[in-house]
Amino acid sequence: MKSDADIIVVGGGPAGSAAAIHARQSGLTVIVIEADGQPRRRPGETLHSGAASILEQLGVREAFEHAIGGRYGSIQVEWSTARSSDRGSIPLAAASGFHIFRDKLDAVLIERAETLSADVRRPCRALRPIVRDQEVVGVETDSGPLEAPFVIDASGNGNWFRKSYPSRVDVLSPRLLARYGYCRVDDLRDFGSPSIKGDQSGWQWIARVSDDTLAWVSLALPGASARPVKPTALAALADVSPTRGADVTWKRADAYSGPGFFLVGDAAFQLDPAAGHGILRAMMSGIMATYQAAAAIKGRVGPDEAAQLYRGWMAEWWRRDTSALTEMYLRLDATWDRSSSTREHHQSEAGA
């Protein structure tokens, strides 16, 4: 059967849009399947200055500059234990970082993909991967089947692909719950830089995402007596929206890629927000997956080698981030232990 595109991307967030943009920049045809008609409001994001080069590569730097809510040049840190306390400011190595609402970031990226003639289909739901002879060859959608040499799952932690394809999820931390919200503020002088404050009960993050709005995230460590709550420093400020929660337990797919597929962003693995660069990882993994898919399509490498190279790249990112997070949490709680992993199995008839 004739393919509908070179690549099908499921999900129009930062990972999926970056994959679609890079596919078009590489001369490939791409279909993006996005369930939401318009970008949804998600937690505000603070991007490190290192994201600037990726935004430049994707061709969205100018549009992004018009959408940001502010800039910052350092991060205020207070990381305390029973024995010691690290206090101070961490300056950025290069240019200042960015504050932006996620719906604005998503809009900038997906509009860039459309400008490059990516076929963005929204609202459209991906139902299940199409598997033939143990190889993923397309996606069954609520509008009918679509086929392509490669499918990229950028659906986030909804686990769209893993729920329908024989796979396993490794859970590699205690259960972690984050809560987040937004506050209105008139005087931003006390909130010029993002701040993170950690102690034996957990940590809290505060960052400005617009001229009059602060975003906060709070996470309680396992065994803490109190669940994560709105930071005390913001108690007197009016909430813009209800407090929400998210399960941010560390999870990873047993295979980041395989015959005909790549998993990118949180679809590949999920860490809690203290890792500090979830959006950067999402965009870079989308680009890397498309780079390997393009190399296979154009005959520069075989499909198996392309999948193997991507798996190794993602495995190294996981190793670096989890090592850094473990070191951070051990400084707050000497009993922190992620050594006893569990596994969630998602079996299906996809290959039948």
UniProtKB/TrEMBL annotation:
InterPro entries: FAD/NAD-bd_sf (IPR036188), Geranylgeranyl_reductase (IPR050407). Gene3D superfamilies: FAD/NAD(P)-binding domain (3.50.50.60). It holds the Pfam family FAD_oxidored. Signal peptide: none annotated. PANTHER family: CONDITIONED MEDIUM FACTOR RECEPTOR 1, GERANYLGERANYL DIPHOSPHATE REDUCTASE. This is FAD-dependent oxidoreductase. It comes from Bradyrhizobium arachidis.
